[in-house]
Amino acid sequence: MKNVLSVAGSDSGGGAGIQADLKTMCALGVYGMTAITAVTAQNTQAVYEVQEIDASAVAAQIRAVFADIRVDAVKTGMVSNAPVIRAVRDSLLRFGARNVVVDPVMVSKSGYPLLRREAVGVMHELVAIADVVTPNIPEAELLAGFPIRDEDDLRRAAEKIASSGAKSVLIKGGHRFGSDAADVLLTAGRFVRIEGERLDAAHTHGTGCTLSAAIACRFALGDSAEEAARAAKAYVTQAIRDAYDLGHGTGPVGHLAALYRRAGVGTGE
């Protein structure tokens, strides 16, 4: 059994954050562990409130896991302020964490800010220790410091983000216009397109968390950055197809749809 640690926020609606990460880890056959950085009050419609966890408590959770259990990969998600970002970075360095996936979560799908504005610059300190960082296009614009209008800008942004120290950069294509939903991966000094179908889907809550968690799982299982990105993209695409019509807003993707089918429960349409 491979073991993967998620350092992220809790989603009370169960569709994103550590809940999405743990479901993804179960689906992909690894053992999931968590260090909770924030507790959010949210559902399919909105994020209503966020309670940040003290940086020392976040560090203590990470320390407790590493002191007892082998950690084969780490995924970081919501780390909303500078003290927490630095506590996470310092802890991962102290314990020699490997296969580190940084998802630079900044804004929820409903528009709620999940990273304090003054901490955007500090995020580069966490990006610097990443084996792969997985921004969407708006996040890549903030990290790179310029707007992304075309493919050339996207590649320049990946290079700029990589200059912080990340070994690989995967810019997600979900915010592209038109039918192109390809992700772009910069790894080992070359660009790779990770093709993907743009689905006309109403329920996509948790896609970013799920993708980064899936990459961490595939890293733990021995994949390269390109192999992990392709496998994660395929998993998320299928999870969108299997998304649940749950609640009154943007429902969660179907992380465990295959398991539910075996139990005789229908998902998707």
Keywords:
269 residues; alpha/beta; six-stranded mixed β-sheet; 9 strands; 37% helix; globular
Helical content, roughly? 25-40%
- Rg of Cα set: 17 Å
Give the rounded overall mean pLDDT: 92
Structural class label: alpha/beta
State the low-pLDDT regions, or none: none
Specify the biggest β-sheet.
Answer: 6 strands, mixed
What letter string, H or E per element, gives the SSE order? EHEEHEHEHEHHEEEHHH
> Beta-strand level of the residues, as a percent range?
15-25%
Please give the oligomerization state of what you see.
single chain
What is the overall number of helices?
9
What do these coordinates show?
By secondary structure, the chain is of the alpha/beta class. It contains nine helices and nine strands. The strands form two sheets. The protein has a six-stranded mixed beta sheet with strand order 3-2-1-4-5-6. A three-stranded antiparallel beta sheet has the order 7-8-9, sandwiched between helices.
